[in-house]
C-alpha cells in the first residue's frame, strides 16, 4: 500500500514502456487480432474487454496472458450479487464488534478488520499482476460504472483507516463478458475491446491438437466433421463450443470408436450436447438423415 | 492525423468518441502497430470499436478511407480507367524485390499518398505499366492494380496481395451487424425506476439490521446481540401486452429490444407477457404466433391478476375503426367478438390501478398518421407514451405515481 495517488493513464506515454509482447502460449492459440488487442491494452495500461460466445476461451486467455508475461494472476469472479465495493475492500464490522465484546484480537486497530478484495489486492501487490474480472455482465447494471474511477486512477480511498490504496504498478486488467447485458458507454470508452469469434475449422484443429497431441488423424477429421454438423443444427439451446469438442475427442479416443462411424453414429453425443432438448434435436436430425440414406439406397 | 478515418467511422455509425481517438494516437506514438498498415488495422479496431456489431462498419470505413475507393470513383476519370483496363500487365517479383519494397512501407504516409495521387491524376498524360511512379498496372508504384506496393492504393483490378485494406474490404463481420439506435440497455435503465422496495415479501433474513442490533445490544446490557432482517425486494409486478403482426412488423427491432430489456430487468417480482393483434378482445395469446390453442380468456386473466399489476400495452393503435368500435369487428374474423374492442380496453384500464400504452410511432406523427382516428380513441382510454427512451421514462413515472 502506498499513500499517494497512482499514476494517471497515459502519463507514461513519453517514454516507451518495454513490456514483453504476448504471442499466445504453448497451450493457448491466440489469433493475430487477439495478440494485437492484448499488446495494445498492456502497453496503454487500459483494461482489455473480451467478449465472445461461452466456451471460446475468454477466461483461459487471462491465464495465458499471465503465463506468457510471467505475472501473477488474480481472479475476480463476478456474480449477480457482486458489488463494486466487494472488489476494493470489505470492512468486517461484525468481527470487530465480537472482538471488542470478548476482548480478543485488537479491536482498536481498524486496519486489522479491513480485508482487500481482488481489485485492492492487485493494486497493493508489489509487482505488476494480471487481474481478470470474470463475466462482468452478470452483475447489476450499475456495476461497471461503479468501477470507472478505480480502474481509471488505479487507486481508492478507505475512509475507515484514512488510507489510500494506489497501484505502484498498474495491473493488466482483463474483463470478460458474455454480452448478456450491454455495458455502459463510459465504461466501454476506457477499454480496449476484442471479440473472440468462434474458431474456424483450421484454428479449431490446431486447438484440439494442442490438447491431444497424439490424436489419430482420421479420428480428428471425423470428430471435426461431426462437431460442426451438430453445431450448425437448427434450434439448439446451447451450441457446443471448443471445450465440448476437446472432451469429445478424448471420449472417442478412449472409447476406441471406429473413426469411420463417427459422423454416421455420433457416439457419446451427451459430451457435446448438454441439454435434453438439444439431444432430441440431434436425434431427430439423425433419424431424418438415416431415412434419406435408406431412400437413396432403394433408388 | 487520419482525421478522415474518424469522420468515415462516424459516417458508418461507429460511435467513436474523442477519448478513444486520443487513445489511438497514444498507441500510434508508442508504435504499437509496428509501423505497418495491418498492424494499424488491428490496433485501431481494438481501440476504437467496442462492439462486435460495429466491426463491419469499421471495416467499411477503414477500406473506404485507406483504399480511397470512393474518392477514386469521383476523381479517376475514364481516361485513367482506360489505361488500367485495356492492357493490364501482371507483376512477377522476386522475394528480394518484395523484401526491399516491404522495408519501404515505413515511409508511407497516407495523407501524403492521397495528395500524390491527386497530383498524378492531374499531371499524368498517358498509360504507364510496370513502373514505380505512375498510375498503371503490374508495377511497384503505389497507384493502380496487379502490381505490388505495400499499402498502396488499388484502382480497379483485383487484389492479388493481401493487405490490411483488402482484409477490411472483405467485410468478414457483416453478420454481426445490428444497426440499432437505442440499445436494450437504455430501456433497461429506464425500467429500473419501475420498482418499489419493501421487506414485506418472504425470504431468509440475511441483512444485518444495524438499528435493531444497537437496540438489542443495549437491551442486553451491552452484550452484543446481532439482529438480522429480510433484504428489501421489489414488489412491482408487470403485465406486458404486445401487439404482434401486421403493421407492427416494421417495429419488430424496437419491440425486441424492449422485450430483452424487460426480461433482463430481473428485479420485477413477476412479469406476465401476453400477445394480441391490433386490439384485445375476449381472448389473449401467450405466444407471439397467436395460436388459439395457446390462448386464454381475457376475463380469466383479469381474475387471476391483482389490480396492483402494472399494465403495459405496446402497440401502434392504428387499425380500422370497426376493429375498435363495432361488435364482430375483430381483424381475425374466425371469432366473433360480442363487445367492441374499445370496451375491452376500458375494462383493462379499469381493472388495473395503473396502465400505460407505449406506441412505437413517434409522438409527432400521432395526429396525422394513417390510423390516427383509432389512435386518438385509444389515447383517451389509456395514457399513451411513445416507445423511446424518454417516453418509456415518462411512462414508468406515470406507472409508479400514487393514485
Helix content of chain A: 40-55%
CATH H level of the largest domain in chain A: which superfamily? P-loop containing nucleotide triphosphate hydrolases
The number of domains of chain A is: 2
Strand content of chain A: 5-15%
- What oligomeric arrangement do these chains adopt? heterodimer
What is the averaged pLDDT score of chain A?
A: 83
In total, the number of strands of chain B is: 14
Shape of chain A: elongated
Number of β-strand runs of chain A: 9
Beginning-to-end CA distance, first to last residue of chain A: 80 Å
Q: H/E element string of chain A?
A: HEHEHEHEHEHEEEHEHHHHHH
User: Structural class of the secondary structure composition of chain A?
Assistant: alpha/beta
Largest interface (CB within 8 Å) is between: A-B, 38 and 35 residues
Describe what is shown at a glance.
With 299 residues, chain A is an alpha/beta fold. Chain A is built from 13 helices and nine strands.
Structural summary, described in words:
The complex is a heterodimer of chains A (299) and B (403). Chain A is elongated, with a radius of gyration of 24 Å. Chain A has a 5-stranded parallel sheet, with helices on both faces. Chain A is built from 13 helices and 9 strands. The longest helix of chain A is centred in the last third of the chain and has 23 residues. Chain A has 2 domains: 186 residues, Rossmann fold (3-Layer(aba) Sandwich); 98 residues. Helix content of chain A is 45%, strand content 13%. With 299 residues, chain A is α/β, with parallel strands linked by helices. Chain B has 403 residues and is an alpha/beta fold. Chain B folds into 3 domains: 174 residues, no CATH class; 32 residues, no CATH class; 166 residues, Rossmann fold (3-Layer(aba) Sandwich), CATH 3.40.50. Chain B has 17 helices and 14 strands. In chain B, the strands form 5 sheets. In chain B, strands 9-8-12-13-14 form a 5-stranded parallel sheet. A 3-stranded parallel sheet of chain B has the order 1-2-3. In chain B, helix 1 crosses helix 4, helix 2 packs antiparallel against helix 3 and helix 10 packs across helix 12. Classes of the chains: A alpha/beta (299), B alpha/beta (403). At the A-B interface, helix 1, helix 4, helix 7 and strand 9 of A face helix 2, helix 3 and helix 10 of B.
Amino acid at each position: 500500500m502506498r499513500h499517494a495517488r497512482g499514476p494517471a493513464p497515459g502519463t507514461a506515454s513519453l517514454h516507451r514502456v518495454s513490456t514483453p509482447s504476448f504471442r499466445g502460449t504453448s497451450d493457448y492459440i491466440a489469433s493475430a487480432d487477439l495478440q494485437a488487442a492484448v499488446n495494445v491494452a498492456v502497453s496503454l495500461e487500459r483494461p482489455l474487454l473480451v467478449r465472445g460466445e461461452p466456451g471460446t476461451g475468454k477466461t483461459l486467455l487471462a491465464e495465458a496472458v499471465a503465463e506468457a508475461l510471467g505475472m501473477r494472476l488474480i481472479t475476480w469472479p463476478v456474480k449477480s450479487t457482486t458489488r463494486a465495493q466487494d472488489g476494493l475492500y470489505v470492512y468486517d464490522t461484525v468481527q470487530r464488534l465480537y472482538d471488542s465484546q470478548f476482548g480478543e484480537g485488537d479491536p482498536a486497530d481498524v486496519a486489522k478488520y479491513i480485508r482487500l478484495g481482488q481489485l485492492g489486492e492487485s493494486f497493493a501487490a508489489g509487482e505488476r499482476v494480471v487481474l481478470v474480472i470474470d463475466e462482468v455482465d452478470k452483475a447489476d447494471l450499475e456495476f461497471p460504472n461503479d468501477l470507472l474511477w478505480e480502474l481509471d486512477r488505479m487507486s481508492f480511498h478507505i475512509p475507515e483507516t484514512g488510507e489510500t490504496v494506489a497501484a505502484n504498478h498498474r495491473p493488466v486488467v482483463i474483463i470478460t463478458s458474455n454480452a448478456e447485458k450491454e455495458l455502459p458507454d463510459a465504461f466501454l470508452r476506457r477499454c480496449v475491446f476484442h471479440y473472440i469469434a468462434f474458431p474456424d475449422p483450421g484454428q479449431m484443429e490446431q486447438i484440439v491438437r494442442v490438447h491431444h497431441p497424439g490424436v489419430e488423424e482420421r479420428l480428428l477429421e471425423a470428430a471435426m466433421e461431426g462437431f460442426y454438423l451438430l453445431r450448425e443444427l437448427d434450434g439448439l439451446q446451447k451450441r457446443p463450443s471448443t471445450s465440448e469438442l476437446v472432451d469429445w475427442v478424448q471420449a472417442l479416443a478412449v472409447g476406441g470408436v471406429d473413426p469411420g462411424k463417427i459422423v454416421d453414429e455420433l457416439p457419446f453425443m451427451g459430451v457435446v450436447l448438454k441439454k435434453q432438448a438439444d439431444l432430441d434435436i440431434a436425434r431427430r436430425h439423425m433419424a431424418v438423415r438415416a431415412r434419406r440414406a435408406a431412400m437413396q439406397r432403394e433408388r | 492525423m487520419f482525421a478522415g478515418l474518424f469522420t468515415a467511422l462516424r459516417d458508418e455509425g461507429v460511435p467513436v468518441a474523442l477519448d478513444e481517438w486520443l487513445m489511438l494516437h497514444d498507441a500510434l506514438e508508442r508504435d504499437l502497430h509496428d509501423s505497418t498498415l495491418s498492424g494499424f488495422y488491428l490496433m485501431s479496431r481494438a481501440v476504437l470499436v467496442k462492439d462486435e456489431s460495429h466491426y463491419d462498419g469499421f471495416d467499411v470505413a477503414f477500406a473506404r478511407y485507406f483504399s480511397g475507393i470512393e474518392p477514386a470513383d469521383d476523381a479517376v476519370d475514364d481516361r485513367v480507367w482506360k489505361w488500367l483496363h485495356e492492357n493490364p500487365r501482371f507483376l512477377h517479383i522476386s522475394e528480394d524485390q518484395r523484401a526491399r519494397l516491404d522495408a519501404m512501407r515505413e515511409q508511407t504516409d497516407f495523407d501524403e499518398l492521397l495528395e500524390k495521387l491527386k497530383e498524378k491524376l492531374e499531371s499524368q498524360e498517358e498509360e504507364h505499366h510496370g513502373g514505380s511512379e505512375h498510375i498503371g498496372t503490374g508495377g511497384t508504384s503505389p497507384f493502380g492494380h496487379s502490381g505490388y506496393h505495400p499499402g498502396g492504393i488499388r484502382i480497379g483490378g483485383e487484389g492479388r496481395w493481401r493487405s490490411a485494406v483488402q482484409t477490411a474490404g472483405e467485410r468478414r463481420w457483416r453478420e454481426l451487424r445490428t444497426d440499432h439506435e437505442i440499445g436494450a440497455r437504455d430501456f433497461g435503465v429506464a425500467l429500473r425506476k419501475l420498482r418499489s422496495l419493501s421487506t414485506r415479501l418472504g425470504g431468509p433474513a440475511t441483512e444485518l439490521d444495524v438499528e435493531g442490533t444497537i437496540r438489542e445490544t443495549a437491551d442486553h446490557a451491552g452484550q452484543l446481540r446481532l439482529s438480522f432482517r429480510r433484504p428489501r425486494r421489489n414488489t412491482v409486478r408487470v403485465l406486458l401486452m404486445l401487439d404482434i403482426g401486421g403493421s407492427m412488423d416494421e417495429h419488430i427491432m424496437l419491440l425486441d429490444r424492449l422485450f430483452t430489456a424487460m426480461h433482463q430487468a430481473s428485479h420485477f417480482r413477476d412479469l406476465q407477457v401476453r400477445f394480441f393483434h391490433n386490439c384485445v378482445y375476449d381472448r389473449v395469446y401467450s405466444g407471439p404466433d397467436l395460436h388459439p390453442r395457446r390462448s386464454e380468456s381475457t376475463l380469466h386473466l383479469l381474475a387471476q391478476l391483482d389490480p396492483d399489476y402494472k399494465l403495459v400495452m405496446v402497440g401502434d393503435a392504428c387499425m380500422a375503426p370497426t376493429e375498435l368500435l363495432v361488435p364482430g369487428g375483430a381483424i381475425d374474423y374466425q371469432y366473433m367478438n360480442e363487445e367492441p374492442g374499445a370496451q375491452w380496453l376500458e375494462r383493462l384500464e379499469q381493472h388495473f390501478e395503473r396502465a400505460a400504452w407505449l406506441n412505437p410511432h413517434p409522438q409527432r406523427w400521432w395526429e396525422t398518421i394513417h390510423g390516427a382516428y383509432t389512435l386518438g380513441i385509444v389515447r383517451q382510454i389509456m395514457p399513451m407514451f411513445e416507445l423511446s427512451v424518454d417516453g418509456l421514462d415518462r411512462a414508468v413515472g406515470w406507472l409508479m405515481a400514487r393514485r
